[in-house]
Amino acid sequence: QQRDKLRQYQKRLSLGLERERALARQLLRDGKKEKAMLLLKKKRYQEQLLDKTENQISNLERMVQDIEFTQIEMKVIEGLKIGNECLNKMHQVMSIEEVERIIGETQDAVEYQRQIDELLAGSLTEEDEDAILEELNAITQEELELPEVPSEPLPEKIPEVSPIKNRPKPELVAAS
Question: Per the confidence metrics, is the pTM higher than 0.85?
């Protein structure tokens, strides 16, 4: 709001400066040099006020930008604070000892499953292995559906077929 008020003040001063300059010219033409001089001094003072107003506007804009940036920084800090609180709560729920215990249990379960797999793999006989391989081959054959091969034998000689049909004979082309 203050910035807008200063802008309006600047416009009023600018318009006043133009009027006073025109009035000073008129006074000089009329031979009233003293009044013109006084008017130009007043104009000069108002120009200085205009410069000060511009500086104040610049300071206000800089302050507004600083405030906006500080608000953004505050939001970032608040987000970091909330994130830090969440991490602390998660650390309270899961201690290092708890994580080590879970990892140990997981390793035990993997080892137990490996032992079961070894027992199952050892219980298969050679006949079972052969049956498994046959079933694998059967599945593989089902997936590969190749086209059927003709059963009749191939001809001995392939008949010659001219690639160009109805081609005029060379003698007729030369005669025309």
Answer: no
